[in-house]
Specification:
TIM Barrel; 6 strands; 35% helix
Length: 205
């Protein structure tokens, strides 16, 4: 379902702001401001390979934020395809590709606003992202996406109660990813050290 068609005009949304719209900020804004749509900070698709735990931390969200859109950036169509699966698996309402950031470190790497000079590459990124979402929708699992599954040890989505999903819980918990220790937000500011157990759905892989 295209949620954009159901949002009353004019649309008042929370724009993606690097270093600002982190999970706690978005949670507070959603609770007290109630924007029509919320976007995450932009997430580098390279982190899916080199820092999967950081990518999942950046994509933490709470149910109160819906509709919530994940924004990603990069320049490699193959990685956009893989990350599209993750965005779908995490249950986001939408996916946004950043093609406008003019920051030097982003544009100099050929990402963001630099893609305006590479229309064919931009088109390939859009098509790869769309195909990734479509393949996920059709049932393709993260398990088949190497080397992401090998490096991050991604497990299927762990279902929680509606009440539990109202808090900004770390997505590593929702996916059942096995790391020695993570920091899981409880509420907006209070944190608790936990040890993650493997997903109860692990046996299904």
């Amino acid at each position: 379902m295209n949620f954009w068609r159901n949002i009353p005009r004019p649309i008042i949304g929370l724009s993606p702001m690097d270093g600002v719209t982190d999970p706690s900020f978005r949670f507070i804004t959603a609770k007290h401001g109630r924007p029509d749509v919320i976007l995450t900070e932009f997430v580098n698709i390279q982190s899916a390979i080199y820092a999967p735990e950081q990518m999942l931390k950046d994509l933490t969200y709470a149910e109160i934020e819906r509709p919530v859109v994940a924004q990603i950036y990069g320049k490699t169509p193959e990685l956009f395809y893989k990350v599209a699966h993750i965005v779908g698996e995490l249950g986001f309402d939408g996916l946004d590709i950043n093609m406008g950031c003019p920051a030097r470190k982003v544009a100099a790497a050929g990402c963001g606003a630099a893609l305006i000079r590479e229309p064919e590459l931009a088109r390939a990124i859009i098509l790869a992202t769309r195909q990734g979402l479509q393949d996920w929708y059709n049932g393709q699992s993260l398990k088949s996406l190497e080397p992401l599954q090998r490096d991050a040890q991604v497990r299927p989505l762990v279902h929680e109660t509606a009440q539990a999903r109202q808090r900004p819980a770390h997505v590593t918990r929702r996916l059942g990813i096995r790391y020695p220790k993570v920091r899981m937000p409880i509420g907006a500011f209070r944190f608790q050290q936990i040890n993650l157990e493997s997903s109860p759905l692990e046996s299904l892989l």
